[in-house]
Amino acid sequence: MHRREFLRLGLAGLANLTLPELLAQRARAGTSAAGDRTAVIVVWLQGGASHLETYDPKPDAPAEIRGPFGSIATKAKGVRLSELLPGHAAVADRFAIVRSLAHSGFCHQQGNQQMFTGHPELVLKLKPEHPDMFCIANRLRSDPTRSLPAYVGVNPIPYLGGAYLGPASEPFAVYGDPNTPSFSVSEIGIRDAGELRRLDRRMKLAASFDQMRSTLDDRLERESFDAFQHQAYTMLAGPAARRAFDIESEDPRLRDRYGRNTWGQRCLLARRLVEAGVDLVTTSLDGPLCGRVGNWDDHAVNHHVFDAMKARCRYFDQAVSALIEDIHNRGLDRRVLVVVTGEFGRTPRISYAKDSASGVMQPGRDHWPRAVSLIVSGGGVQGGQVIGATDRHGADVTQRRVGVRDLMATIYQHLGIDAARLTLKDRTGRPVPVLPEGRAIPELVAQGPRTPARQTRTG
Prior knowledge:
single chain, 2 domains, 14 helices
């Protein structure tokens, strides 16, 4: 059951796990205040975008490597990007490029899970054996007094999850297309007076249920449950969540700047959420705009890789460059860190196979975790820089290899979480280090002091 469905059900199913219980479980697991309320947006390219057609072009490589696209100069001196990304080029002084991340996850589940759990995760599983970093940060940052969830997945990243932290740590999931006039998160911000009266009656009925009260151990837990019940009511009936998700209230000119399409409006919604006070927002850019198979997995049997990249990059380029520009223009660029990546890059050498639908022979690129390119903006990061390098074919890292735990340490540090000293207990009660190794990437750490968020250390 998705988090939005818990909200839709609200307090109706008191014999089962309701939103107040979910919030109470989250708090009993360990909570903290969030310091200066730094936030993170992850824009996820499910399937693995080609680094050669985006952030690490190789225009001087042989034809069987480089493909048909050239590179273009950018606003950052000496930095070149694929010609498919002119919007990125115009704001390149506002983001840093990492061209040297590498890991061992050769398939999508492994890639997603390695990127954000920091564990090998070598077996193909729909959910990881260890909680991903967003679930962990959500557990540490959740606060029963807030009127918005700490973690929202706008079309959440697949293959991640709370593992032994349980589903209470997972995101409030928002599906649907925010570009459609009818888009709404109908389970929050109830407007109808009749619905509000029914919700009030449910609240009063909840208070009278001895069976529910008997499950609470002591007075403190009973008082906490009342607080979480109040938070559930606030999210269901209060205006804060409704305003945050009301994308129709945005300036139409800004909506146009992001692009009047699914990806553009997902990125705009992500910005609205962090500005409203959500700490963690992930959004996956997949679906019909990606082409026939709905993601960036450009095997030759799925897509003609170059036709697909040319078609989708105009939406991707507009949405991401608008997000970066908007974060900076609104003065959110120290508080909010934006990370744009997929689970791996693509093979340097172009492969050929018949399209599985049409039977036409066409070019593709396959999975390649040995070289992953990503960009990072905001969070006080100095833009216009490039970290690391790959060889002339984009096959292997030649400078400044970055591991997934280094990326995670960077994000944790931005959130004020000392992950290196944090342990969690797994299902057997065994303490598991959250980040046993890995160091924040120095170039991606904000210059100047930042007050760390308080946290609860478990273990």
